[in-house]
Amino acid sequence: MLPLSLYFAWGDTRARYRRSVLGPLWLVLGTAVGVVGLGFLWSELLHIDKSTFIPSLSIGLVVWQLLSGSILEASGVYIGNARLIRNVSAPLFVFPLQLLLRQLINFCHNLLVVVFVLLIFPPPLSLNQLLVVPGLVLVIANLFWLSSLIGLLGARFRDLGPLVGSFMPLMFFLTPVIYRPNQLAMTEFIAWLNPLTYLVSLVRDPMLGFAPPVFVYQVSVGLLISGGIATLCILGKKHGRVVFWV
Fold it and tell me: Which residues contact 23 (CB under 8 A, 6 or more apart)?
């Protein structure tokens, strides 16, 4: 299943940038422009030193693009592959996995911006940086079940796609991408009510040299277990109907 999904994901990426001079570097350039523009503007508005704010922003923005890209495309993941689903006998998990791998390819491209920023504003080196590996694994695992579930619901209810598209811009401001949860003072708990906050923290905190709080891992693992079981149960009962929904 993984080789097939990776083949499709890589093919989608190549097709997207075919006949383009810079290819995927356009994605990197767009991310870099966003980091520079938002970094200098919001560091002045929030009165935060640029050497502290810009690295946090760059990592948060790159992780957010991974999260939002996966969620936004998930509602149409089965609909967009309707022809394959009707004519090829393949596990339904292939298509959310293909989506996730394509977003991870984009994520790896955008990491060039993060590397460049961290070279300019280097964080303190510590063993905490190693926590980015299990953190990224948890993020990917949670996005996999979430994409599968949203894709299934999107195939059954076609209004879900526009609904998610309208909701995600609001989620950008409710998720601590530009700011950090501890900068909200008394309203910090509001940020932690957002599940995406935990996924951002799993990657950003270790990259900056900090260990995420233990409850971040506890909630993320809880989401993975509960969401994964719910997705398996729903997909197990409804997988035979997807071919008729798409």
Answer: 17
